[in-house]
Design brief:
mainly alpha, Arc Repressor Mutant, subunit A, 66% helix, 0% strand
C-alpha cells in the first residue's frame, strides 16, 4: 500500500481489532485508556480511507498489511526468517522443540538402524527360501539340496 504509513501502535490496534478484541480489551493490554484506543482506531481508519475499524481491517487485509501468521512452531519460525524478521518468543520455543524432536529421532535411528532395512533383508531371505522349498530344492537345514 502506498498511502500513509501506520505507526507501530496503530498496527497493533489494527491487528488486535482484526482478532476480534474490543477497544476495552486492547486498551487494557496496551496500557491505554479505551478512549485513546478508539481515537487511534479512528485515525488509522482515516489513513486507510475506511469508514470504520471493520472496514479498515478489510482494506488492510486487501493491501497486505494484515497477513495470517503462524506462531509457536517451526513453520512460524521459518516464516519470520523468510521475512528477515527476528522470530518471536513463541516461534523460538517452537523451533527449539522441533530441533529437539529431530535430534531425538536421529539418535533413535542411529541406535536402531534405519527402519525397514532389517525387515527387508529378512523378507528377502524368506522369499528365496520359500522359492527353493516350493521347488523341493531345500534340505533339512534350509540349504540347497545337492
Amino acid at each position: 500500500m502506498s498511502g500513509p504509513r501506520l505507526t507501530d501502535i496503530e498496527l497493533t490496534v489494527l491487528r488486535r481489532a482484526a482478532n476480534g478484541e474490543t477497544y476495552a480489551v486492547i486498551a487494557g493490554a496496551l496500557g491505554y485508556q479505551e478512549k485513546s484506543v478508539s481515537k487511534m482506531a479512528l485515525r488509522l481508519a482515516r489513513k486507510l480511507g475506511a469508514n470504520n475499524i471493520t472496514h479498515a481491517v478489510h482494506l488492510a487485509h486487501l493491501a497486505g498489511l494484515l497477513r495470517r501468521e503462524r506462531h509457536g512452531d517451526h513453520a512460524g519460525f521459518a516464516a519470520h526468517r523468510y521475512r528477515d524478521e527476528e522470530p518471536c518468543d513463541d516461534c523460538w520455543a517452537g523451533e527449539r522443540a522441533y530441533r529437539a524432536e529431530r535430534r531425538q529421532r536421529r539418535r533413535q535411528e542411529a541406535t536402531d538402524g534405519p527402519q525397514g532395512v532389517q525387515e527387508a533383508a529378512n523378507g528377502a531371505r524368506g522369499i528365496r527360501g520359500a522359492a527353493r522349498a516350493a521347488d523341493g530344492r531345500t534340505g533339512p537345514q534350509g540349504e540347497a539340496a545337492a
